[in-house]
Amino acid sequence: DWTMAEFRAAKVAQIRAQVGSGRVICGLSGGVDSAVAAVLIHEAIGEQLTCVFVDHGLMRTGEAEQVVSLFRNSYNIPLVHVNAEETFLAGLAGETDPEKKRKFIGGAFIDLFEEEARKVGGADFLAQGTLYPDVIESVSFTGGPSVTIKSHHNVGGLPERMNMQLVEPLRELFKDEVRALGMELGLPQAFVGRHPFPGPGLAIRIPGEVTKERCDILRKADAIYLEEIRAAGLYDTIWQAFAVLLPVRSVGVMGDGRTYDNVLALRAVTSTDGMTAEAFQFPGDFLPRVATRIVNEVKGINRVTYDYTSKPPGTIEWE
Ligand code: XMP
């Protein structure tokens, strides 16, 4: 049995052997996986690594700032932060098809990343925080037999186009092992313990058209939901919890008036690797309390529902 300290030392040696004196560029997604990969690679090769964070503006409240500060201030790892919210919102305007939304985001992400890679003088290697479940769920990208369920934007395409070799130190790991490795590398527990967040971000939690206004509504509701989950001490027992802003309006009543506003779905699941999942059963008064807070505090939402679907047959995300 490997300990994480041994795994860390072995990976550092392996990365050094693979990379030699070459240059490595790493795309940060804002999530735990790419951050752990980057910190590990930085430990192995230091200044030969450049990190690029293409910020699509589809993150939750405060998330982008946390990543930037973690890298620049805590680790002193050089980081190029590309604020591309406008580009992504413009490209998503009018698009309602889930796969087209994903494809656009993946494509724009690659274009912007390539542009930054050129600006820093290119690299010989591309580092990614690909995990074992990502490898399995995306086999069709490499011509394997399975069908693509969803196009994960963090795997496939990029290395061929950029003519670079891949460095993927987390490829054999499951999420809980990546968290253990992150702790081993000294990343803050609050960061390492964060729920997984998909590459395409809030865009796939807004079925239908994504607009700045809908992103803002969703961010507010999601923040209240997660604040209550943390306050109830449930955050770490849940694999993933998030809100989905539905493209449905419903009639409600507030004060003396009729409202006609958006419907929000809340999702929370338990899982060990994201490949299968069960809906989380909240204690009795939790969901009604959250629903009341959201409807009272978030303008634009007048109804809240809870998603009880398991994976399979559902997926964790709605798109
Ligand atoms: P699904 O919705 O397929 O999600 O049951 C399984 C896990 O994967 C995450 N997810 C993604 N992660 N890029 C990512 O990095 C993506 O495009 C993507 N799509 C889904 C999802 O949040 C869940 O943890």
Automatic annotation (TrEMBL):
Alphabetically ordered keywords of this record: ATP-binding, Glutamine amidotransferase, GMP biosynthesis, Ligase, Nucleotide-binding, Purine biosynthesis
Keyword Ligase belongs to the record: yes
EC number of the protein: 6.3.5.2
Highest taxon of the lineage: Bacteria
UniProt entry tagged with the keyword Iron: no
The GMPS ATP-PPase domain, residue ranges: 2-194
Coiled-coil residue windows: none
Reactions mediated catalytically: XMP + L-glutamine + ATP + H2O = GMP + L-glutamate + AMP + diphosphate + 2 H(+)
Enzyme class: ligase
Subunit structure: Homodimer.
Name of this protein: GMP synthase [glutamine-hydrolyzing]
Organism: Sphingomonas glacialis
